[in-house]
Automatic annotation (TrEMBL):
InterPro entries: RapZ-like (IPR005337), RapZ_C (IPR053931)
Highest taxon of source: Bacteria
Full protein name: ATPase
Lineage, highest ranks first: Bacteria, Bacillati, Actinomycetota, Actinomycetes, Streptosporangiales
Regions that span the bilayer: none
Domain RapZ C-terminal: 3-119
């Protein structure tokens, strides 16, 4: 069975982890941090999930990323494919995207591990 590792992270907490694919969600997708009522929530909270998933383009990016992962998996080298997806703080957009990507890839029969590097870190004041 092919294996995929997904790591969500926040650029403001350090360098992106090593990955075959790095997805930067900072500039093109709605940031819940800018809404005071969502700022201190995380990807575990439904209002944040609804905001991120309701952003135009997210569903298309999930599908495009799943297609890119499939391309890596069909390449001549064996091994785990790593996807890192990041937002500013790693508490909102990146973990939600990572969870939905993991669900999508598991639906294709892939073995997926998921790690949220910065989800439980404090809110970055910016």
């Amino acid at each position: 069975m092919s294996a995929v590792e997904i790591v969500s992270f926040g650029y403001l907490h350090g360098e992106p982890p090593p990955a075959h694919l790095t997805i930067d969600l900072r500039h093109h997708f709605k940031d819940p941090h800018v809404s005071p009522e969502l700022r201190y929530m995380t990807a575990r909270d439904e209002p944040v999930r609804a905001t991120v998933l309701g952003t135009p383009g997210i569903a298309d990016l999930l599908e495009a990323t799943a297609t890119a992962v499939a391309a890596f998996l069909t390449g001549p080298s064996a091994g785990t494919v790593t996807v890192a997806d990041g937002c500013a703080g790693g508490r909102h957009r990146a973990p939600i995207f990572a969870e939905h990507l993991a669900h999508r890839l598991r639906g294709d029969g892939l073995s997926v591990t998921l790690h949220h590097r910065d989800l439980d870190k404090p809110v970055v004041q910016r």
